[in-house]
């Protein structure tokens, strides 16, 4: 129904199609569910009445949770300058180029890439604790209860829907999958690690 009103939409992640209804970009997904970013001018919006009944607009929290399940990190003020691109998997989702451009820290980033020395990665998990819902979690430490001395990582981003909080967290590869991961303290709420739609192991 949506394509009948909007036109043939892209399928491959990040693929873009310009249509009379606007620009559509296929968003990555952790499952077979299709989703798109739709960019339209005021004029296109005024002319898109036929799309109203076909659009399945998603609440912001659900969209963010889908981003997290797809392994797409969003860096906020709380996590700015905390991670290098590889530890939040930007190299695995084509979010950083090693052949062009200049940016602060480029030498460290490139060295880690070409030497294959990345020992930390971003993983996905869920927290089934209603008390955590609504809390600002980005930047909060992650602990491994089997080695409680020091934090093993940090939360990159989080989104809560229907009593479950989805999180992307940066941690050591050694803590996955055997670690007993906890939020904020070694005895904090448990983070149940789950698979990303791409491999994070070397």
Automatic annotation (TrEMBL):
Q: Which GO terms describe its biological process?
A: iron-sulfur cluster assembly
Q: What domain of life is recorded for the organism?
A: Bacteria
Q: Which InterPro entries does this entry report, sorted A to Z?
A: YgfZ/GCV_T_CS, YgfZ/GcvT
The entry's protein name is tRNA-modifying protein YgfZ
- The source organism is Alcaligenes xylosoxydans xylosoxydans (Achromobacter xylosoxidans)
Organism phylogeny: Bacteria, Pseudomonadati, Pseudomonadota, Betaproteobacteria, Burkholderiales
């Amino acid at each position: 129904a949506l394509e009948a009103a909007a036109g043939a939409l892209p399928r491959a992640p990040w693929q873009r199609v310009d249509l009379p209804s606007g620009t559509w970009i296929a968003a990555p997904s952790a499952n077979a569910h299709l989703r798109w970013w739709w960019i339209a001018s005021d004029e296109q919006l005024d002319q898109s009445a036929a799309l109203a009944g076909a659009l399945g607009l998603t609440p912001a929290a659900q969209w963010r949770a889908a981003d997290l399940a797809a392994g797409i990190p969003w860096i906020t003020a709380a996590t700015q300058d905390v991670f290098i691109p590889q530890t939040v998997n930007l190299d695995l989702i084509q979010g950083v180029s090693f052949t062009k451009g200049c940016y602060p820290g480029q030498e460290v980033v490139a060295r880690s890439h070409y030497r294959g020395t990345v020992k930390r990665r971003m993983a996905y998990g869920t927290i089934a604790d209603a008390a955590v819902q609504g809390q600002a979690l980005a930047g909060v430490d992650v602990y491994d209860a089997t080695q409680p001395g020091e934090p093993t990582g940090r939360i990159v981003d989080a989104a809560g829907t229907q009593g479950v909080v989805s999180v992307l967290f940066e941690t050591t590869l050694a803590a996955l999958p055997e670690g007993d991961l906890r939020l904020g303290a070694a005895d904090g709420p448990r983070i149940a690690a789950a698979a990303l739609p791409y491999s994070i192991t070397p």
